[in-house]
Design goal:
This protein has 436 residues and is α+β, with helices and mostly antiparallel strands. The protein has twelve helices and twelve strands. The strands form four sheets. The chain has a five-stranded mixed sheet with strand order 7-8-9-11-10, covered by helices on one side. The protein has a three-stranded mixed sheet with strand order 3-4-5. A two-stranded antiparallel sheet has the order 1-2. Helix 10 packs parallel to helix 11.
């Protein structure tokens, strides 16, 4: 994961707290301005001896002094208010805990003789917040919101709003049903609006993802175009010189008719080698260029190493081939072939005339290669060139290992590759790669 993706995830996680914090602040102001009428149980007599009726009020969060029992009432008011505010803050992180925190204040109704409409508002806010993340989890606060609304309309308990105590209506059954339906419709509209906001946000996210995919496709296309250009340049330069070698080798016998049979045979082999190199070069460039309509041919496999050895022997190199190459899958077989090809080239270049031993192994879901040839130095220091680096990249791409170094006055190259089709990186590779 890139640092940009990590940063965006952090930003999105921080944004999840914005809406809950704003709604919690609104709820807190609503509760601060919702007065709590004095319950009947704690009402005092007026100076003329007549029982008072709701003559004293206190704020839910910051109340004024009451009579001897006012401390408990104030404590309950503060606890319920803070619980509802905390519930809204936690709604998106802990929806079920938030629902419980907003629902328990209704248990205090027998003590207070009324409930604060802000408690119910907290449940509605929690429902709207949870629906932004999960339709299924939003069902719990939604049921709690509707249940408390219907309980309110069928009861005669007053609800406290900033404007004072309010009841749902008279005891007439028709008015009760109308009030319940009105609350249900209001909840449906508000929650539906919250759900619509979620759908719009998801649409924006999908659009952003589509734009990112399109951008990635454009980058891939740009890379492919650049690779095609490089392939054309390589073909123009390398293929020209290789074909020139083949032409000169073939025409040498005509330009110099006095050449003996041995020289003619060597020149003919050089021409054949040049044509083979040109053919392989065109195959590799075809893969790089991704041209359509070009000829297709299978890539070399592990058992094709025998042909490499025969060509090297025909060119005068002393090569001994041993081991087993049967049933090696195509992907590791191709890598083994290229590794032997590079190893023989390095042996001709750095140890001309020295005998080279090539040993292939295949057992226990592992294919191996060991190439040895004598060297003058035995300090074990190997300076990797482009060939050895490319060989290592091919091997490691399939989950294999490569070691190269001097051992007992001999340069030793060891390649180990997994061949199990159900495990490791080779499982995702095609069984037979074809080139254009």
């Amino acid at each position: 994961m890139s640092s940009h993706d990590t940063f965006m995830q952090t930003v999105n996680a921080d944004r999840r707290w914005v809406a809950p914090a704003v709604l919690a602040a609104v709820l807190g102001l609503f509760l601060l301005n919702s007065p709590l009428s004095r319950p009947i149980a704690v009402m005092s007599s007026s100076q003329d001896g007549v029982v008072g009726a709701t003559t004293g009020r206190t704020s839910l969060l910051v109340g004024t002094s009451w009579l001897d029992t006012s401390g408990m009432i104030n404590l309950v008011s503060v606890a319920t208010g803070l619980s509802c505010v905390t519930a809204v803050v936690l709604a998106r992180r802990r929806p079920f805990t938030a629902t419980a925190l907003a629902a328990w204040p209704f248990v205090t109704i027998p003590l207070l003789g009324q409930f604060v409409w802000g408690w119910w508002l907290a449940l509605l806010m929690i429902t709207c917040l949870v629906v932004q993340d999960s339709w299924r989890r939003a069902a719990v606060p939604l049921v709690a919101t509707l249940a408390t609304a219907w309980w309110y309309v069928v009861s005669d308990v007053p609800a406290m709003l900033p404007i004072g105590p309010v009841t749902a209506g008279s005891a007439d059954a028709r008015e009760v049903v109308e009030a319940g339906v009105l609350y249900t419709v209001a909840v449906a509209v508000v929650v539906g609006a919250a759900a619509a906001i979620r759908l719009v946000r998801e649409s924006w996210r999908r659009s952003d993802r589509a734009a990112a995919v399109e951008q990635h496709a454009l980058e891939v296309e740009s890379v492919a175009t650049e690779r095609a250009r490089l392939a054309r340049d390589l073909h123009d330069v390398v293929a020209h010189h290789v074909s020139l070698v083949a032409v000169r080798a073939e025409s040498a016998s005509y330009i110099h008719p006095d050449l003996d049979a041995n020289a003619r045979r060597v020149l003919a082999e050089i021409a054949d080698d040049a044509r083979s190199a040109l053919s392989e070069l065109r195959q590799v460039l075809g893969v790089l260029q991704r041209t359509e309509g070009a000829g297709r041919a299978p890539q070399p496999a592990a058992c094709d190493v025998a042909d490499l050895v025969d060509e090297a022997r025909a060119a005068g190199q002393d090569v001994t081939l041993t081991g087993n190459c049967d049933d090696v899958p195509d992907a590791p077989g191709y890598v083994l072939y290229r590794a032997v090809q590079e190893a023989l080239t390095n042996a001709r270049r750095h140890a001309p005339g020295s005998p080279t031993t090539v040993e292939l192994t295949h057992a226990a879901q592992v294919a191996g290669l060991r190439v040895t040839n004598p060297v003058d130095r035995a300090d074990g220091v190997v300076v990797p060139g482009r060939g050895l680096t490319g060989m290592r990249e091919r091997v490691e791409a399939l989950g294999g290992t490569l070691t190269a170094g001097a051992e007992a006055s001999a340069f030793v190259l060891v390649v180990t590759l997994p061949t199990d089709p159900d495990h490791g990186p080779t499982a995702s590779l095609p069984q037979r790669e074809e080139v254009a």
